[in-house]
Amino acid sequence: MNGWFRGKASLVIASFAGCCALLGCSSASTGAGSTAASAGAAPMVVTVSDAPLGNILSAKATIAGITLGQGSSGSSASVLAQPETVELSGLGALQEPIEITNLAFGTYSSVTLNISAAQVTYINSSGQVTTASASIAQPAVTVALSPALAVSSQGEVQLQLAFNLAQSFNIAGSTVTFNPAMNTSGAQVSSENSGDRHVEVTGAVVAVSSSAITVASGDSSRQFSFSVNSSTQFPSGVTIASIQPASIVQVQGQTQTDGTILAQMITPESQGDSSGQQQDGAKGIIVSVAQDSTGAVTAFTMVPREGFGAVGATTSISVDVSSATTFDLPEDAQQTGLSSTSFNAAELFPGQSVLVTGSGGSTGALQAQKIVLAAESIPASLVAAPVGSSLDYHFTLALPGTAFLTTYSKITSLATVAGQSTDYSGSLTAASFASLAAGASIEVHGFLLVDTKGGYTLYATEIAKVETPESPESGNSTGDN
């Protein structure tokens, strides 16, 4: 797989029965040029993921259309039923679904992406948080699929469109331009490694049973269902039966060869009340912290990447922290070796990623009832080759001078730990990672904490190389399909 980790929209082509089980539907919309599943078409799940840029706190783009072309025949298939606004800076290696559609059997040699709008929140040259709408330099970009993607009844296929935010956004003073830069690749789901098959959705529970959970994404608001079985993991004391509708949960899953998505891990972030009312909340980056005379954190300001309940499309939110606020680590953070008690109010600092739930987000400050450490993706270069063996590695990342962690917390180098639970995406494996030399550009997805001595450590859950985006096809970089 080419360039997967840097932030991609991924299209998973699955069996008809499997995808309808995934989304709880009775049928799927049919893309242009395709026919019903029984007459030679397969449903396609469209998922989105991201790649961060050092000084970007949030980046949203409205995808107006995605079209697959069949080359000289001129046939094409639209795989997006309606425009979707997606956040392009928060998931890192993990994909989030945004659409399902039928795709006709055939061989597809190109992908055309249409962008109708983009907005970015970033740190300007004066160190201030700035939000701007971007002008769209190229409304439509076409890139080749090499090798071409063959869709048939032989098995599920995953198509990856990998955005590179560093080359997609151009920020010059107060002028922002968005010109989507991406890589493409396709493969049989059965041939992919586990890192390339990850899917994650954070949002409110719409429905739950002993065998499935349906969640409305806090990013796109679309509803998606995951199958649940005996291998699904939960935090201690949590079962599928204890999760109530309107709860906010994080579901991590993996695409299966039968077209379904299995929930590998379900982490409740809040519980809905007895009336089914969802709590307010947000997931994003802390940009400032307030302390009282004793040094205790009393409040912070964050840039949300996802919002829940009354927290809508806002570019900044204030959060009040009290003695009643509880703190938690998600299950995948604990699998990196972190203790469940290692995250508390003293650990909050600018540049950290958190998920907050509480009340009052529509009228002013969000009164935090629970704060959960969230994973974040950090692009950087290796200071030296990784040290270690047997999948346990230690290494140091050199951060760019414009990175928000450098701006807010003066972090120029970051100690990083990879372990048995760390996945490797795209062209990178655990073995090839160990052979990387100083200066290699990588992206690390994981959990960032500060220790009692003021040092920062990133606990990696996923690692991949950063690769150069492909050039658009000649004559197809602008205009409509």
Question: Can you tell me about this structure?
Answer:
The structure is a single chain. The radius of gyration is 21 Å and the shape is globular. With about 475 residues, it is mainly beta. The N terminus and C terminus are likely disordered. The strands form six sheets. Strands 3, 4, 5, 7, 8 and 10 form a six-stranded antiparallel β-sheet that branches. Strands 6-2-1-11-14 form a five-stranded antiparallel β-sheet, with helices on one face. Strands 17-16-15-18-19 form a five-stranded antiparallel β-sheet. The longest helix has 8 residues. It is about 5% helix and about 50% strand. The protein folds into four domains: about 180 residues; about 70 residues, Copper binding periplasmic protein CusF (OB fold (Dihydrolipoamide Acetyltransferase, E2P)); about 90 residues, Beta Barrel (OB fold (Dihydrolipoamide Acetyltransferase, E2P)), CATH 2.40.50; about 90 residues, Beta Barrel (OB fold (Dihydrolipoamide Acetyltransferase, E2P)).
Concise summary:
This protein is mainly β and 481 residues long. The protein is built from five helices and 32 strands.
Shape label: globular
Major sheet size, sense and barrel closure: 6 strands, antiparallel
Count the E strands.
32
Distance between the termini: 26 Å
Structural class: mainly beta
Q: In percent, how helical is the residue content? A: under 10%
Mean pLDDT comes to: 80
Determine Rg (CA atoms, Å): 21 Å
Number of domains: 4
- Poorly predicted regions are 1-8, 15-38, 475-481
InterPro entries: DUF4382, DUF5666
Domain DUF4382: 44-171
Keywords: Signal
Signal peptide: 1-31
